[in-house]
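queue> holo job accepted (nicotinamide-adenine-dinucleotide)
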Amino acid sequence: MDGRVFIIGLGLIGGSLALCIKKEHKDSFIIGYDVNKEQTRLARMLNVVNETAETIEQGAKNADLILIATPVKETEKVLQILECIQLKSNVIISDAGSTKKEIVQLAGNLKNMGITFIGGHPMAGSHKTGVTAAKAILFENAFYLLTPEDHILEEQLHKLQNWLSGTKARFITITPEEHDYLTGVISHFPHIIAASLVHQAEKTSTKQKLIPSLAAGGFRDVTRIASSSPEMWRDILLHNKDVLLSLLDDWQEEMKKVAEMIAAENSEEIFNYFFYAKQFRDELPQKERGAIPSFYDLFVDVPDYPGVISEISGYLAKEEISITNIRILETREDINGVLVISFQTEEDRTRADLCIHKYTNYETSEGL
Ligand SMILES: NC(=O)c1ccc[n+]([C@@H]2O[C@H](COP(=O)([O-])OP(=O)(O)OC[C@H]3O[C@@H](n4cnc5c(N)ncnc54)[C@H](O)[C@@H]3O)[C@@H](O)[C@H]2O)c1
Ligand SMILES: O=C(O)C(=O)C[C@]1(C(=O)O)C=C[C@@H](O)C=C1
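queue> job finished
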């Protein structure tokens, strides 16, 4: 497709969307705007956008597609600004915010002006922020949730999906209410819990100096997302207040039950608690980002000796296979270590698997 695309908010998500559109629609022209001058400068320097605008009005008035990728409370302000601009009559406006109900409601004014707004949310991301973390591959295989209202024509929806086809994401259409409930359960609430675990460890660390050093492994895995943008998460919690308050009530009930099981030393119930959690978690679709982000992992059974990481990464480098992360999962004297190597694509993982088998006789698997 050709046309002028205007991206407001040139951070991780805005920058990644710009890269996806550029890759797929070579004739498009991408203009970016960010309140942060440094992000604007970086976006231009890294060629994420073709041009930057000085104001929202400057970038919006001739745009065919406008994407808003700011924290959701800022999106409210951006929508109000857009309402006051003479936009092209056939422009499509969408956003990438993690909440939808409030945003779609606020976009009602654009609807009254005959302007098409379709709420959007790519369900993949990272705890990193800013345009330097942007990448075209970020949304591959992820779900991309769209919340068109009833008056939106199929043709407009398809046009938006076509613009976003470079994300290689899978589009799903749901209502804003369904969206906020689902993402509340699988995304927003886990971020609250991750932050609360960090707070608990931090409080304990004033008395127990070893806590920060021992907070490795499981603690790091379960709290990675606590390193996400506080601004973004403040806004999400404010927008999805009712769903999150209800989930917090359920959680407190659940924790009471756990406390009772432990106090009663009910070993069967305690076992079942972990057993059924493991069963459900293990059955989550691994290849679909959004359910469990940050794949594609390859597990390699390696002998426990110094230098094994550089040995394996050396083979991968020789075959020019890029990795995003490499770590030893477990090392004890009596068992082999498990090396976990993460890749950005399934293809890289498959090549890595073949490469490791070519140079070694270590066993590999895609899951533990
Ligand atoms: N990070 C994720 O994992 C993720 C995933 C999917 C969706 N989202 C949503 O995408 C949006 C952007 O998140 P991000 O991760 O890219 O954050 P980010 O911090 O990397 O980028 C946000 C950018 O918006 C800019 N900005 C803030 N207010 C603005 C305004 N009024 N006008 C123009 N620019 C403004 C900031 O300067 C920043 O550069 C949020 O709504 C978030 O909820 C995030
Ligand atoms: O991988 C992460 O760091 C994320 O938290 C990504 C994540 C999520 O919860 O899955 C966070 C918020 C977005 O709205 C969508 C995706």
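queue> Residues 98, 123-127, 187, 225, 228, 290, 293 surround prephenic acid (ligand 2) (CB under 6 Å).
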